[in-house]
Design a protein that fits this description.
Blueprint (H helix, E strand, L loop, with lengths): L1 H30 L2 E6 L2 E5 L4 E6 L6 E2 L4 E5 L2 H19 L4 H27 L5 H52 L1 E3 L4 E6 L6 E2 L4 E6 L3 E9 H4 L7 E7 L5 E11 L4 E2 L13 E10 L10 E6 L5
Helix pairs in contact: 2-4, 3-4
């Protein structure tokens, strides 16, 4: 009889414990509208110039700030090319024609011929010269003016060609200076280096991936909601995010809905939604500020949307 009573008590306690577990699970499930994993905006930084890698400051796990020098590529050949272009530019500029000096002699001839025309005109009035002398001087004046015009045109074309060559050289120098700036890679975003694809001493080419970095100060929980839920989820609305740290340890964060997919997809493996019967779900992104730095990429989390009626 005592044994029977003991068995009844054991069964009773087990039933109560099971009920509490079921109630706890159903209660937790009711608090969450969707589940998913945290992700970050990842950026793959590539080389924009070719050369030997002199310095590599981006290593896995390193935190880099925006604007930090993450990689330096050898610039000796670029500096030599720039010096060569500057020397060629100086040669082009020095060869430019001095228009004033080139036409000075011809202008002097024109001025002398005009003086002779005036003098001959006075002599004709006094009967000391004839009309033919004046006509010859006038004809010569026209020839000299045409010569001046032709010489000015030739000099202008020569200088225009030199100016165009000089400008082309200046653009090439600017291109080299741009390559020199890009030889020192500036980190584009603040975050944690996730992967490194190159090492110091290696040769890199244009477009080669150097490292991957992610902004871990702001993460996004990609959760999946049913079609019925998406009708109540609005972009910009607040949400409560619960990060899963294992062993039923959850931490609460404030979030904001930033994106709701317009395209449905089959329920991803391992994703639990509020409506277990739904076979089609919609991806939703919730922006979460990683204030304490505990959130990690790929970590599980749950979300409760403030706009959904429980």
């Amino acid at each position: 009889m005592k044994k029977h009573n003991k068995m009844k008590k054991t069964y009773f306690y087990a039933s109560v414990l099971l009920a509490l577990i079921v109630f706890s699970c159903s209660s937790n499930k009711e608090n969450y509208d969707a589940s998913g994993t945290f992700e970050a905006t990842e950026v793959i930084v590539s080389s924009e110039v070719a050369g030997r890698i002199e310095q590599m400051n981006a290593t896995e796990g390193t935190r880099l700030k925006k604007g930090d020098t993450s990689c330096v590529i050898d610039t000796v050949q670029l500096h030599l090319k720039k010096m060569q272009l500057k020397a060629s530019l100086e040669a082009i500029r020095s060869a430019r024609a001095d228009v004033s000096a080139q036409i000075a002699a011809l202008k002097e001839q024109i001025a002398h011929n005009n003086n002779e025309i005036e003098r001959t005109s006075r002599l004709i009035k006094g009967g000391a010269a004839n009309q033919k002398q004046l006509d010859d001087l006038s004809s010569n004046a026209k020839v000299l003016e045409k010569q001046l015009k032709a010489q000015l045109s030739t000099l202008d074309k020569t200088n225009a060609s030199s100016d165009a060559s000089a400008q082309s050289m200046e653009y090439q120098i600017l291109q080299i200076e741009d390559q020199l700036r890009k030889s020192s890679i500036s980190n584009p975003v603040s975050g944690i280096v996730l992967a490194k694809y190159a090492e110091e001493g290696e040769l890199t080419t244009i477009g080669r991936s150097m490292y991957k970095i992610a902004d871990t100060d702001t993460l996004f929980l990609r959760a999946y909601a049913t079609a019925a839920q998406t009708t109540q989820i609005k972009i910009g609305s607040s949400a409560t995010v619960y990060a899963d740290f294992g062993d039923e340890d959850k931490k609460e964060y404030s979030g904001v809905v930033t994106w709701v997919s317009e395209k449905g997809e089959f329920t991803p493996k391992g994703i639990k939604t509020r409506d277990e019967r739904a076979s089609t779900v919609y991806a939703v992104k919730i922006k979460v500020v990683n204030t304490d730095g505990l959130l990690k990429i790929g970590q599980w989390g749950d979300v409760s949307f403030s706009t959904i009626e429980k």
